[in-house]
Design goal:
mainly alpha; 11 helices; single chain; 60% helix
Length: 302
């Protein structure tokens, strides 16, 4: 089967109207529809004559079908969507866990104490499985809105949630058994997992619980005309610019970090959630970033 047009489903990213609605302080679930890359984006050549009528038609059609489906969905559609979501979530958890285990075994081969490295990696993989499972359950729970309070759907949904939890536990069992066999083959004894002492940076992060003072996301980097930027001293403006420049790869995590800044989670917990969601987090950068948000009176620390 040949698709009618090229498209890709991508992970969440900020930078457009959808991330304003999706912000937890606004709370309107929203997808983003974009054409990317676009060589005219944010340039003086980005004019009306560059609009492709056919692409515009396809975009409008896709949006209309999406909205029509959601608006007219009832129990039948909710049942189908829950089944589809459960199957995809289970597959995604298994694929991700196996990928991480493969990487952990490869890294263990390079370590002086491979058994300790493997056990530490298994702990993190278990966290990732639990995180993805929680997100999956939230996805399934959200579909309830389409079926209203129909008892037949509620019963089916609960069955699927249980199925997902069982699949998650089965995946962790599989990983543990695979690791034990790997260790046995290499003549290693896997030690018990032990708690890790927090570093000075982690202790600082755990003492900082940010609470947002305004609804909606905040744009900081590159937007020096924003009102909140005026409150910074010249030295602070230079320091913020330097922090942003030196941590280009980490800047994309700021939106997610702000989403999780609910006045209850500390920065260490927020950093871990960013890592579980994206695969990476820069704790030092996040501390510095939120310190500047405090100076700009956009957050306060509880």
């Amino acid at each position: 089967m040949v698709p009618l047009s090229k498209y890709a489903v991508t992970p969440f990213s900020s930078g457009s109207d959808h991330y304003v609605y999706s912000d937890p302080t606004v709370g309107v679930p929203c997808v983003g529809l974009a054409q990317w890359p676009d060589k005219f984006y944010h340039t003086s050549w980005d004019t009306l004559d560059k609009v492709d009528p056919e692409m515009l038609r396809k975009s409008a059609l896709m949006t209309a079908v999406y909205a029509y489906f959601i608006a007219n969905s009832r129990v039948r559609e909710a049942l189908w969507l829950t089944s589809e979501a459960t199957t995809r979530i289970k597959g995604s958890i298994g694929d991700t866990a196996q990928k991480l285990l493969t990487e952990a075994m490869d890294e263990a081969e390079k370590e002086e104490k491979p058994e300790r490295a493997l056990v530490d990696a298994l702990g993190k993989i278990g966290e990732k499985i639990d995180y993805d499972t929680r997100i999956g359950i939230e996805v399934i729970e959200s579909i309830q809105r389409l079926a209203r309070d129909d008892p037949s759907y509620t019963s089916y949904k609960e069955k699927k949630v249980k199925e997902l939890l069982n699949a998650s536990e089965a995946e962790k069992t599989h990983l543990r058994e695979a690791s034990e066999e790997y260790a046995k083959m290499r003549g290693l004894t896997l030690p018990k997992q032990k708690g890790k002492r927090m570093s000075k940076l982690e202790r600082e992060a755990s003492s900082l619980t940010p609470k947002r003072l305004y609804k909606g996301p905040v744009s900081v980097g590159g937007y020096t005309h924003r009102t909140w930027f005026y409150g910074l001293s010249e030295d602070d403006k230079d320091s913020l610019w330097k922090l942003s420049k030196e941590n280009k790869e980490a800047r994309g995590a700021t939106t997610l970090a702000l989403y999780w800044a609910d006045g209850e989670r500390n920065l260490l917990e927020i950093s871990r959630l960013v890592e579980l969601e994206t695969g990476d987090s820069n704790l030092s950068f996040l501390i510095g970033f939120f310190r500047f948000l405090e100076k700009m009176k956009l957050v306060q620390f509880e």
